[in-house]
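FAQ
Q: What does a multi-component entry look like?
A: The components come first, one per line:
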Amino acid sequence: MLDIKLIREQPEYVKQQLARFAFDPTLVDQVLSFDEARRRQVRTVEELKARRNSVSKAISKMSDPAERATHIAEMRTVGDEISALDRDLAQIEEGQRAVMLEIRNMPHPDVPDGRDDSENPVIYQEGEERTLPFPAKPHWELAEQLGIINFEQGIKLAGSRFYVMRGMGARLQRATIQWLLDLHGRQGYEEVYTPFVVKEQALWAAGQLPKFRDNLYRDEESGLWLVPTAEVPITSLYSDEILTAEQLPIYHVAYTPCFRKEQLSAGRDVRGIKRGHQFDKVEMYMFETAERSYAALEKLRRDAEECCRLLGLSFRTKLLCTGDIGFGSAKTYDVEVWAPGQGEWLEVSSCSNVEAFQARRANLRYRPEPGARPEFLHTLNGSGLGLPRTIIALMETYQQVDGSIVVPEVLRPYMGGTEVIGKE
RNA sequence: GGGGAGAUGACGGAGCGGUUGAACGUGCUCGUCUCGAAAACGAGUAGGGUGUAAAAAGCCCUCGGGAGUUCGAAUCUCCCUCUCCCCGCCA
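Then the predicted structure of the entire assembly, as tokens:
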């Protein structure tokens, strides 16, 4: 959610920023007219309420029954008026909020204009688009041959875009999760384990709703939704709270499975494990002050890159342009790793500073000084990392000519010392 | 699933339907005292909205959430949510 004061005071600036996206600027005008109507309404209702309060108080002191009756009758009318006006006001407020929730975040000045993901500039790269000294296989071939991923069983159990990881495949993923959590712990993130289902409000707070409604799994009976990312529960961890300055910053890391219907990308990436309905992810999340949030974004990005570096993968970092940046984000870096089998870069992390966008939705504030007014926090999120694509890159990068896979050194302690995943 | 108890400010804990946005206590902040500290004493200590160039004053709303009764509700009624205790059931 944007700051209503900013919209009110600099509507042209807001429109101009939003115009950099394919975004309907009339929403801003809608907000403005709601806001004006709202304030007008508030003034008239409050005037009436003030009158009722003072007259009611006076009534309690009146001794003359006739005078008393006159005033009570008068206040009865005023009371009816007030409830009618209050009803209208509630409608106006609801209307305004509904539009506010539809408006995306504004971009940071660094964000370049661009049509789509092809126009995201690469700002950093480490390692090459390496080729192997033999014909590299895609991960689904390697995994099937080694018996570490079974696609048929996934389909049998839950349908397309599901798979079953087995043996050393399952173990490799679990080892990677463990290693990532430990690494981020050393980088200063406190581990949290959250529910994997949340109330609807949490999805609004994180900005998943309204946009991704069709992409989310939901249990009608309980009204709970499966999380599409750990970002969702963590965003609401401190919602409706006022944190103290000493508590900040708060850095969290969480492992969760993620559930996405992927209807928006039907037909894309159907082979392998690149895009499933259920996948695992380790997520980093930061609660920061406005002053520090962009410095924190750089740490977040470096911490994500460090995962790739230590795993020995080629990686590069892109700055997302206006055509590709997410709904809630002010500035986003994508970190991609090279997968030699398919010869493509895979996004394993997306690091965003959403500024106060989520904090306003979640009503998440902090008090800069004792006694000072509460201010909205800035929040940041970044994967560290998404598991399937990391596993793809590992398998395709570390495959050997015989189809076996060398385990990266950092993961070996987490795999009981296993150095190579070969055929049983 | 059945029965009972409860939800008030940072915390504890009062609160006949009418100067109660809320006693009292604790905590916290500032001040007096002190070489300093403790103690004691004094003052202050919610959030949102409106208002304002920005503040401030003033005004409005908020005592788990919502609806209602009333001239007036923290106090009365109804619904919901959550917490605690007992019994049953299942992991």
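Q: Is there any commentary attached?
A: Sometimes. For this entry: Chain A has a mean pLDDT of 92.
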